[in-house]
Structures are given as C-alpha cells and as structure tokens.
Amino acid sequence: MLWFESNGSHRHRRVALPDFTLGAARSSLRAELNARRRAVSAAERTAAAGRAALNADRSLRLAAGQRIAVYAALPGELDSAPLIALAASRGCRLFLPRIDRRRRSRAMRFVELGGSLRENRLGIDEPAGFNTIGARWLDLVFLPLVGFDRYGLRLGAGGGFYDRAFAFRQLRRVWHKPLLVGFGYAFQQVERLAAAPHDVFMDAVATDEGFIRCTTG
Fold first, then answer.
1. Could you give the strand order of the β-sheet that contains 132-133, starting from the edge strand earlier in sequence?
2. How do the residues of the chain divide into helix, strand and coil, expressed in percent and rounded to 5?
3. Residue 192's domain is classified under what CATH number?
4. Contact between residue 172 and residue 137 where contact means Cβ atoms under 8 Å apart
5. Cα 82 to Cα 88: distance, rounded to the nearest angstrom
C-alpha cells in the first residue's frame, strides 16, 4: 500500500509496512544506533553536547521568557546539560517531562525545572514540583532521539510518550506550536525511516555538526 504526504511544493512517496515488519525494522535499527551511542567516549559526548547546544542557540535564538521543554539525559543519550545551562542563561523558563506513575500509562506532562529531581520507573530524572504546563503551551521542545531522517521522522526509545503528548500536532491547520526539535549526534541521521500512523514529525534537529531544518517542518 502506498500513500503520499504533501507539504507545499514537496510531495513524498511513502510505503506503508505491516506493523510487525515496521516494528522489527525499528528494533534492529534502534539496537544498531544505540550501540554507536554507547561507543562514544565521555569526553567526546561532553564536547558534542556543547557544540549541539551552540548550534541550537545560533539557529533558534533562545530568548528570555520562552517556555522550553528539555530532557534529563540517560547515559547513552547526547547530554542535555549544556543546553539546559545555555537556555537558563538566556532567561528561558525550563520544563522537564514527567510520566504518569501508573505502570501501564503512557501519559506525560511537563513540570518546571527547579528543586529536587527523582528517578522514575524508567530510570529517568524528573522534577518533583507541581508547576506544570500543558504541551500546547510550550514554545519549544527538545526531544531525545535514537535516530532521525531529514523529513523530520524520529526514532525514539519505543515508549511512545512524546508521540502521545504531541499528537495534537497532527492537526497542523489549527495549531502550530510548540516547535519540536530533536537533539542528538549527527551520526544518528539515517537516509529514511518508515512512518507509523502515530508518528509526530519534528521541525528540526540540532546536532554536534549543525542544525537541520526538516523537510516536513
């Protein structure tokens, strides 16, 4: 089964794969890219994170008062600490995601950064505070990723939390915020990812080698 996705003058041909085929392909690619991330030394990771933060700031012009969601990086992910420090120095309001404590829930909300952090059931640090904001009211969101392509498709860890939180972005005719920007290594870019119906596309990706504005963003 084939279908087309239109974006202005661009028109992309996509192939719809059966769920089991798509899932197997994504799992294989996820394992390969995770292995590459783990092979990055601590010094290289720190340097790459600093460069990616500067590339994001140059292109997006982080400014005081912006409501920006970031993430608390797991050991294999590109470290978000330099980005958080830079955004804070610009006077941005920073938020971290917090997932629902119920084991089977995929719900996620955003809590203002400040005070203590606690580890959730997935081993990710979350704010313990109560000052939350709806996903629709954020200005900019930096997303962790395992892989991505130039069309804005993101390969995540497989939980589906971000896709659910920003599913409203599928209705782009009536809602254009927040800007979704991936944050990762340049080597995480792949030629093309097969899309699933629930996938929410990114607008751009900031990497250690530059800033990529996605075709569908």
1. 132-133, 108-112, 93-99, 67-69, 140-143, 179-184, 204-207, 210-213
2. 30, 25, 45
3. 3.40.50.10420
4. no
5. 10
Domain range holding 36? 2-213
Dist CA 1 CA 17 (whole Å)? 8
Our count of domains for the chain comes to: 1
Output the CA–CA distances (angstroms, integers) from residue 215 to 38, 153, 203, in the order listed: 29, 10, 8
pLDDT per residue rounded down to tens, the chain (217 residues)? 333 333 333 333 344 444 557 677 788 898 999 999 999 999 999 999 999 999 999 999 999 999 999 999 999 999 999 999 999 999 999 999 988 766 565 678 899 998 778 887 777 888 888 899 999 999 999 999 999 999 999 998 877 889 999 999 887 666 678 999 999 999 999 999 988 888 899 999 999 999 999 986 4
Rounded Cα distance, 139 and 83, in Å: 16
DSSP states of 60-71: H---TT-EEE--
Residue with tokens 């974006």: 7
pTM: 0.84
